[in-house]
Write a structure and sequence with these properties.
Elements lengths: L2 H7 L7 E5 L3 H13 L3 E5 L2 H9 L5 E7 L8 H11 L5 E5 L7 H8 L3 E3 L4 H11 L8 H4 L1
Helix pairs in contact: 3-4
Length: 146
């Protein structure tokens, strides 16, 4: 039996709820499927305002925020992260983006701290990125996730 399938049999309590935010429905579905196959529980939002509402009115503990940076609307992913950080300063927050203005000073810190995953990414890259932030949970090989 592969490592991946053994992990699926472990208690789901070992895997946190992840709030995934991206304005592109395809990306939301892709990330959700990859994370769920690795036994994470996933909540999704397609903009920062919806994510904030889920965060405020949540019925489950959120263990990680994974948000796109550039999104339409009054609040982008960096502003969402700052707002959530004021309420819950210890919540792990990770970012993903297909492009961020290089002149945006807010991007320097997250890039230097390894909190940014560039799109497009493979399932293994996503799982390694999330697992590293959550304490190094291993999820088997990429072929086991396909």
């Amino acid at each position: 039996m592969s490592v991946f399938w053994v992990q699926l049999m472990l208690s789901r309590d070992q895997y946190p709820n992840i709030l995934v935010v991206d304005d592109e429905p395809f990306i939301v579905r892709y990330v959700q499927q990859v994370l769920q196959r690795a036994n994470y529980r996933v909540l999704t939002a397609t903009n920062a305002e919806e994510a904030w509402s889920i965060f405020v009115y949540r019925r489950v503990k959120i263990g990680l925020l994974l948000t796109d940076i550039v999104m339409p609307g009054p609040m982008d992913g960096l502003e969402l992260a700052a707002k959530i950080r004021k309420t819950e300063p210890t919540l792990p927050i990770l970012f993903m983006t297909g492009g961020i203005p290089g002149s945006d000073p807010r991007s320097v810190e997250i890039t230097e701290e390894g909190l940014l995953l560039r799109k497009p990414f493979l399932p293994k890259q996503l799982l390694d990125f999330v697992g590293a932030r959550l304490g190094g949970v291993s999820h088997g090989s990429e072929s086991e996730l396909s």
